[in-house]
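Subject — a protein and its fold
Encoding — discrete vocabulary of local shapes:
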Amino acid sequence: MAGLNCVGAASNVSLVRKLGAEFVGTFIMVFGAAAAPIVNEKHDGSAGGLVGNAACAGLAVMVVIFSTGHISGAHLNPAVTIAFAAVRHFPWAQVLPYIVVQVSASLSASFVLKAAFHPYMSGGVTVPTVNDHQAFALEFVVTFILMFIVTAVATDSRAVGELAGIAVGATVILNSLVAGTATGGSMNPVRSLGPAVAAGNFKGLWIYLVAPPVGALAGAATYSVVKLSDRPQNQVHDDSSRVDAPSASPYQSSSNIQDHNII
């Protein structure tokens, strides 16, 4: 398809359309991920518990990637946007507009949930049940894992990009099962920010604003280091003057920056 790679946003889509799709996608993600624990709280834990919460979060991410990834790239997460800009897979000029839209969508979804489920909004807030150091480390690690997978399926032509939604959604479920009882398994600043504002509960919020971006930067950088070279192996050996150079990539120069299907 002209202007569209297997995992990226169409290059001919205007920024306004991308931002519109990003708003809708982030709204759906936050609504789904926060609604599950709210409903669970309302029904005294009988509405699926940890498994149900993890499944809702992962499914929300998956369906949004499949439905809006070809328009906006389906970032849904400021940590992802910043990390991909840092490793030159997304233009810095679009980072701030994307983050503004993501925050706006998170706040909108959270206040819709508050109107629909009051007084049970507190169930959708991610609050650490461990100490701050443990919570920070856990959010860092699960976001690192998420971003490593996202970078693989979204930027490497050897990965099966058509299945990015399934791979990323499954990773969200996995991480939510691991971190859900300790930190809520946020992995995303706007997943935590909107519900915290709507509920007026800011306990430990700084962890969710700082740890995911740092973990995402580490995850994206790590995959960029370990990914296979795009050049044939014999060319790598023959070209001794470039043995220590980074793996060849269409993103080595700023003129080749592209958008990618990520959360």
